[in-house]
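Budget justification aside, the reviewers requested a transparent look at the raw inputs and outputs of the sequence design task funded under Objective 1. We therefore reproduce one unedited record. The lines immediately below are the structure tokens for a 360-residue chain.
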């Protein structure tokens, strides 16, 4: 499909720079294909679902994956910035480097250093591979827990470009850009639909008889990469590593078997479940990378309802929601959201989307 089909105009003032407070006071646009849109709030979620439905959350935890440092080559040095996006070993990460033209394979980079400052706990790495689009493989001098500790000392929370271009990361973001149930370290971007949940909302969902289950997909920086191709068939997705446990797969299969609905909180949990489900709609345990790219025409195997924030024009995520609820429905929903003052992107409001072929 032509990528232009997924374009729309978004006023700059619709981009949220801070989350709603409290988190569950964010607005929620309910989208049932073929029906009028409903303007609600996230706190209304328990009443929008049925007893026996199951919410599926991504419990990945954002790490300080934004690094600045100096490339050293003999007496010469140059400043570079790296965004880690996928761990591939105890001491190795794939990363996007800027400006990539300043490095070659074999270069040493000292993170935590700049021309004017040397931080305690500085972290050195070697460029082992260099790929397309500024991607490199970095082999660090530390590994395992020592590397994790160094990243927390040297790194910064990698705010999305559309926020970082307007303000700097600060201490508030360390809490704001993390779900309250984050558990498994490894993401470089938050599963942002989950940012709306609070202990009070969890209690209300429990009281309504709605189950809660967790999977893990470590969101990579590739989620922010623009689609540069003119046709979706020519776009290459970056892989992200995820896990669905045997116990979770069994519990979710049981939900489906008794007529409950699978409600994914975020596109990340949806992509992982769709990767782990077979053609017959049965979920299996899963561990490993997925690069699933969902566009209109995709036949959903497992997920019935999706709660997700509002996404960028021409993005793979807007393509995914268009596949889920229909392109024309989602174009109309986004037009309604823009006209009604909804806040967009990571810190913005959310939508509750029902699948085009199964809603109610």
């Amino acid at each position: 499909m032509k990528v232009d089909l997924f374009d729309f105009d978004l006023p700059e003032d619709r981009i949220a720079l801070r989350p709603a407070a409290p988190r569950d006071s964010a607005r929620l646009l309910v989208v049932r294909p073929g029906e009028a849109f409903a303007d609600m709030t996230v706190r209304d979620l328990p009443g929008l679902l049925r007893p026996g439905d199951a919410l599926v959350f991504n419990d990945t935890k954002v790490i300080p994956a934004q690094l600045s440092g100096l490339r050293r080559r003999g007496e010469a040095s140059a400043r570079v910035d790296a965004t880690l996006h996928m761990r591939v070993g105890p001491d190795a990460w794939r990363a996007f480097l800027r400006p990539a033209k300043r490095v070659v394979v074999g270069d040493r980079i000292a993170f935590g250093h700049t021309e004017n400052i040397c931080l305690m706990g500085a972290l050195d790495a070697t460029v082992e591979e260099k790929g397309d689009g500024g991607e490199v493989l970095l082999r660090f001098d530390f590994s395992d827990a020592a590397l994790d500790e160094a990243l927390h000392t040297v790194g910064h929370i990698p705010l999305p470009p559309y926020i970082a271009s307007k303000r700097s990361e600060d201490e508030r973001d360390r809490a704001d850009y993390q779900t309250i149930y984050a558990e498994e370290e490894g993401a470089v971007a938050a599963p942002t639909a989950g940012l709306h949940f609070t202990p009070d909302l969890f209690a209300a969902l429990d009281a309504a008889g709605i189950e809660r289950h967790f999977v893990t997909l470590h969101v990579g920086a590739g989620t922010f990469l623009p689609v540069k191709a003119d046709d979706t068939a020519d776009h290459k997705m970056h892989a992200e590593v995820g896990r669905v446990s045997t116990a979770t797969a069994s519990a979710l299969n049981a939900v489906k078997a008794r007529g409950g609905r699978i409600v994914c909180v975020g596109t990340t949990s949806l992509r992982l479940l769709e990767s782990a489900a077979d053609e017959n709609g049965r979920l299996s345990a899963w561990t490993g990378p997925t690069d699933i790219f969902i566009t209109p025409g995709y036949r959903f195997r497992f997920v019935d309802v999706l709660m997700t924030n509002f996404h960028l024009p021409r993005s793979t995520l807007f393509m995914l929601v268009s596949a889920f609820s229909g392109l024309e429905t989602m174009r109309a929903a986004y037009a309604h959201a823009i006209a009604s003052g909804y806040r967009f992107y990571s810190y913005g409001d959310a939508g509750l989307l029902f699948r085009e072929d199964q809603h109610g």
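The longest strand covers residues 76-89. Residues 327-339 form the longest helix (13 residues). Computational costs for records of this kind are itemized in the attached budget.
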